Amino acid sequence: MSVEANKELVRSFFETIEQENYEALKDFCHKDYVFYPQIDAPYSGVQGLIESEKKNFDAFPGFKMPIVEMVAEGDLVAAYFIFEGRHTGIPFAGIPATGKKAKFSLMILLRISERKIIEQRSFVDVHDIIRQIKA
């Protein structure tokens, strides 16, 4: 795939996540998909991604995650996001809903193979989120 096609795949992937269309995420992910929300704790398969995203949306219902910047080279796409949401749902990191607003940045690096996302690595400062919802 071209670099532009890879970027479009990633853009559509995150739009699908923001719409909470979990069933459709399977169409974007390679059969060997691996999600690394942390370096040493990967989730194999799309179900791990769905469970992770569902927890975020259940903690911050309706949160927005616009892509601010996207860079691609070869089979890699990097996306930078600014998330905004209010903690009114389930506990986040063990903290019951506070009703507080959180705004935080996130970097994600994705690898594309056979027109699908095969690897996703996320980099987020969870302590910044906790600081905001506990403030």
Task: Output the keywords.
135 residues; alpha+beta; 4 helices; 6-stranded mixed sheet
Description:
- The structure is a single chain.
- It is built from 4 helices and 6 strands, in the order ααββαββββα.
- The protein has a 6-stranded mixed β-sheet with strand order 2-1-6-5-4-3.
- The radius of gyration is 15 Å and the shape is globular.
- By secondary structure, the protein is of the alpha+beta class.
- β1 (29-36) and β2 (43-44) form a beta hairpin.
List the topology elements.
Elements: H1 3-18, H2 22-28, E1 29-36, E2 43-44, H3 46-59, E3 67-73, E4 76-86, E5 101-113, E6 116-124, H4 126-134
> How many E strands?
6
Shape summary: globular
Number of helices: 4
For the report, how would you describe the main beta sheet?
6 strands, mixed
SSE run: HHEEHEEEEH
Whole-angstrom Rg: 15 Å
Helix- and strand-based class? alpha+beta
Kindly report the spatial arrangement of strands forming the biggest sheet.
Answer: 2-1-6-5-4-3
- Mean pLDDT over all positions: 94
End-to-end separation in angstroms reads 45 Å
Measured as a percent range, the helix fraction is: 25-40%
Strand content: 35-45%
Q: Which residues sit in consecutive blocks of at least 5 with pLDDT less than 50?
A: none
Quickly describe the structure.
The chain has 135 residues and is an alpha+beta fold.
